[in-house]
Amino acid sequence: MRDKVRCLIIGSGPAGYTAAIYASRANLEPVLFEGLQPGGQLTTTTEVENFPGYPEGITGPELMEDLKKQAQRYGTEVYPGRATSVDFSVRPFKVTIDNEQVIEADTVIISTGATAKYLGLPDETKYAGQGVSACATCDGFFYRKKKVAVVGGGDTACEEATYLSGLADKVYLIVRKPYLRASQIMQERVMNNPKIEILFEHNAVGLYGEKGVEGVHLVKRMGETDEEKIDLAIDGFFLAIGHTPNTDIFKSFLELDEVGYIKIDNPTSKTNIEGVFAAGDVADPHYRQAITAAGMGCRAAMDAERYLSEKGL
Ligand code: NDP
After folding, report:
1. Is residue 265 located within the same domain as residue 300?
2. Could you tell me the pTM of the whole model?
3. How far is the CA of 104 from the centre of ligand 1 (A)?
């Protein structure tokens, strides 16, 4: 592994791999570190139906494998490993991998994505791996013919509930508002699914069970005069309430928004530090789609190429 590169890409989702395809075809000889979850969030998805070019759909892991092969075909070096710290105050930049290896880079493309959020209940930790999950595709198999609950009212929650309905006997969708935030097509899928019951205006406040989750404590119309406490028997509790951008190691150098997403100089991928670019969910609180992340990865590679040629690097 080289210890000095022209273009270092951190993260292996659609943004990172698309950046790698463009950067390698532009002769930047990029090196890409895959991070904690090689292939990114799509590897926890089943069918991807909205990525252009796949009329029959494709599974998330297959799509990511294709993107990886395409990046490697043009010479991208792909390594396992997580960036654990960075120093953007020096040139070339310094990126430490797995707390050990320091790599110098003329440009860095950050595509570290986002991570699923939890409600913050102590019981989520208590029952971690014993009935609590933030990934239906990863863990749904364990709940065949059982009862599960999914928390959230967005597209992710509807997608997870629909997926789980193919395995479990019953799926409760716990939604804190009186309506769903998900797109119309996902709402319809959930509403027309006889196995899914939507509990509007319900908040999950705790879990119970002797050996793993046996139920969830809910509060209906929390804070209202007709507030009601309900215990619901379930075997699995799935979180689908959004994501947090993976930007911890960058926050002392890069400008972030109030939630922690990297601020970029739209329509480019430029961060506040010249030579550092960001692409995909880590810099996109709005769209968060595989295809938009891929488009951002393309921009980042083109921006990196222009920067390197302007600087004669
Ligand atoms: P969203 O932010 O869209 O939705 C989060 C949901 O979780 C909302 O219903 C929100 O409620 C609820 N929520 C948040 N915090 C809490 C809490 N503490 N307690 C209870 N409920 C909570 O996130 P998604 O992950 O669903 O989607 C993110 C983006 O990705 C969206 O743009 C979505 O369209 C896209 N997406 C698209 C897919 C597709 O097209 N196939 C699949 C998955 C995601 P409230 O409404 O009250 O804020």
Report:
1. yes
2. 0.79
3. 37
